[in-house]
Amino acid sequence: MTERDITERGRIEATPPFHAQTVERVLTELDTSVLGLDADEAASRREKYGPNRLPQEPRPGPIRRFLAQFQNILIYVLLGSATISAILGEVIDASVILLVVLINAVVGFIQEGKAERALEAIRDMLAPAAAIRRDGHRETIPAEDLVPGDLVLLKAGDRVPADLRLVETESLEIQESALTGESLPVAKGTDPLDSDAALADRINMAYAGTLVVQGFGAGTVTETASKTELGRITGMIAGLPPVETPLMRQLEKFAGVLTVVILALAGAMALFGWAVQDFGARDMFMAAVALAVAAIPEGLPAIMTIALAIGVTRMVRRNAIIRRLPAVETLGAVSVICCDKTGTLTQNRLTVEDVVTSDESDTVKQQLLRAGLLCNDGEADWHGSGWTYHGNPTDSAFLAAAVSAGFDPAEERAAHPRHASLPFDSRRKFMATRHLFQDRPEPTAFLVLKGAPERVLDRCAAEADGSPIDADGWKTKIDALAAGGRRVLAVAWREAGPEHETGYGPLSDASLGTHFRMLGLVGLIDPPREEASPAVAECHAAGIRVKMITGDHAATARSIAGSLGIGDGTRALSGPEIDAMDADTLRLHAADCDVFARTTPEHKLRLVEALQADGRIVAMTGDGVNDAPALKRADIGTAMGANGTEAAKEAADMVLADDNFASIAAAVEEGRVVYDNIRKSILFILPTSFGWSFVILAAVLAGQILPVTPAQILWVNMIATVTLALALAFEPSESAVMARPPRDPAAPMLDLYLLWRTLYVAMLMVAASYGAFLYATATGTPLAEARTLAVTVLVVCDCAYILNARRLNKGLFAKGLWRDNKLIGPAILATVVLQAGFSYIPALQSLFGSAALPLDGWLIAVVAAFTVSILVEAEFQIWKRLRRN
Ligand code: ATP
């Protein structure tokens, strides 16, 4: 029995808690080492302890989710209508209304389930990962697979994946507000503490759910899943947020207004018919019910949900993972994309291209490469056949350069052990380390500095050989390298002064001093991604400004931006220049300039705010822990999936699986398609609803008999929405979506033109179906058959009109009418079959009061449908011409 087993049964008194034990004791108790577990042991512990995952809040059960489908004001009106019909003894109408409400709820329930599953699948894709050491090698595994004894490696931006007893720390700071409420980060160490230290004081532990804000660390897992401190507090993680977006809320509001209008109109109509036209009260009640069910677009909410879910799925296929559903809509309105350079526009495969020293001597060059290897947070791993590098790409490039010059990283590091470091930080723009010469008789300490050349130069007093520094000469060399698009870093070193004499104690900005010797410059290339340049051009054509934000030198930034087609090739605004501007000045410049250099994450936040103040919808990319505020603030915060930190991903609305700029452009395109498809569905459904309402109004006002019954209206509404309009949610992208400017987010979904078009189509449909009805009754056709004719004409007109509604910007005769959307043909066919059933199946005849339609009825319907479709097309063409002139 291991001590761990004893712990499981309730800690025995003698065993102090992990934070009170030495590192060695903890490792022994957990039966592990600083090299981590081996694969077999990890697997058997995984069996024993289960997944490192908090149980999820149970989802509302299917019954509750089904009942939620009825919580909608439009449904209340329908239920009210059913009640009135029932009271008046119109059992069939009442049951059909109830049936429709039911079908609608079932469809909504199924679609919502699909949308939720789509989101859930995405959540799995974003499951956090943990870097661990296994068998002495570095590996990345799903955080869920962690077991007690695993050795987890931490770096800035990581969310701590389990409770850890720290075994190594380097400038490690962790923000623990999730647990302790304390928002200031806590500096961590490894020394044992008092057993009764409070949670907030246990600085040698890292707790699950807290955030690493600086430095590095390694810790062995002590507890996982619900046994962690976080698990004890929360017990479970929150379930999925409800599927709702601003557009849906807008629609709900619209539904509210619509309901009031419908009720008022129905009431006024009934009163008028009863008082003026001498209709019976009962008939007028039923007419009011008919008007209400006609005007309500029952299927719209379900179609909207499915259109959004399809958008999410399509975006995933194009490597953009949506974390919050509203982002799907907002993406379509994006007018500015602010993008990091390294890794998103470029390949993030940094390689050392130039090494520039003062006298081109080999000794200095060797010294520089060695210094670059020592002052480095990357790791080089020999795998038998070659080296692999971990860590940030700049550091990896330095390691690779040193390795190819013949250095052995492990040997060098052993010969010059590192005693302190000031890690790289995008605000500081350099890193510094302190080492010892092991080989000297008297161990002496020395410092190495590596970073943005102007920062390094500021601290240099001498050249490598000790002569006074030629700062101007270096500046010329820096500019020349940067103008060639190189990322430029300088490396310097100095022997540590008396303040560092012992070789111990922390390193700080102040203790670094300014007596460094300049070893030289390194120029790194990072080729642009192949897809970046065409994607930038696509965004420009789509009226979207692309702005490049980088921590690099202005000249480097300009050169790379120029090769991608970003900016005018001459202007670049730098971080210090931004600092000197107040919000108003920045607003002017932010809109104008497309390249921002030497920036820090704080500048990103200010830029987002400046652009938003100008009315732009901003997508902003980020990867670091400090990028989180800018990502949260942006309309579309976009994090890098491969190289981004957990902190950035959590703050983002969208995560790019491939860290690629082109995926943002693709997501914007899909966002526009979703918005278009919702608009198309509305444009398709509303004319039918409006048309019927007009017919009923007109009939009552004219003192005529109703051409359709409420049940028949519902029949048309249902097949028009459930079969036909649903196909519109699957419409692919129109070629023009990325050739027009972004939509104005403040503009209503239905602009004046679309409103006009809705009314125009509604009038055409009324004319066709009411006309057919009047003609039929005038020629002595029985009422049931005349009504069937009216319904058939409308349904067939819908089948033709859907072809017009498929394109917002193209005519009926443009290419690909049937080909692009394979669902359109089957949807039309299904509708016609259903309509035939309506007319000929006895059961449906008695349910809907329909009758068998002779062939000429169908002919009338087909001719009417063609005419309506052609007239809509004619209007579109005239309008297009007018707009062009
Ligand atoms: P981009 O915005 O293009 O992605 P970035 O914001 O990642 O770039 P930073 O990482 O902040 O840019 O780097 C800014 C500057 O800091 C670089 O130009 C370089 O001079 C310096 N630098 C970058 N990485 C390191 C490193 N590992 N060690 C020392 N200095 C570095």
From TrEMBL:
Signal peptide: none
Sequence intervals crossing the membrane: 66-88, 94-110, 254-276, 288-313, 682-706, 712-731, 752-774, 786-803, 823-843, 855-874
Gene3D superfamilies: Calcium-transporting ATPase, cytoplasmic domain N (3.40.1110.10), Calcium-transporting ATPase, cytoplasmic transduction domain A (2.70.150.10), Calcium-transporting ATPase, transmembrane domain (1.20.1110.10), HAD superfamily/HAD-like (3.40.50.1000)
One protein family per Pfam: Cation_ATPase
Keyword Metal-binding: no
Coiled-coil regions, chain positions: none
Any one Gene Ontology cellular component term annotated for this protein: membrane
Family designation: Belongs to the cation transport ATPase (P-type) (TC 3.A.3) family. Type IIA subfamily.
Location(s), subcellular: Membrane
Name under which the protein is recorded: HAD-IC family P-type ATPase
Domain of life: Bacteria
Domain Cation-transporting P-type ATPase N-terminal: 17-90
Molecular functions (GO terms): ATP binding; ATP hydrolysis activity; P-type ion transporter activity
Keywords attached to this entry: ATP-binding, Membrane, Nucleotide-binding, Translocase, Transmembrane, Transmembrane helix
Membrane topology: Multi-pass membrane protein
InterPro entries, sorted: ATPase_P-typ_cation-transptr_C, ATPase_P-typ_cation-transptr_N, ATPase_P-typ_cyto_dom_N, ATPase_P-typ_P_site, ATPase_P-typ_TM_dom_sf, ATPase_P-typ_transduc_dom_A_sf, ATPase_P-type_domA, HAD-like_sf
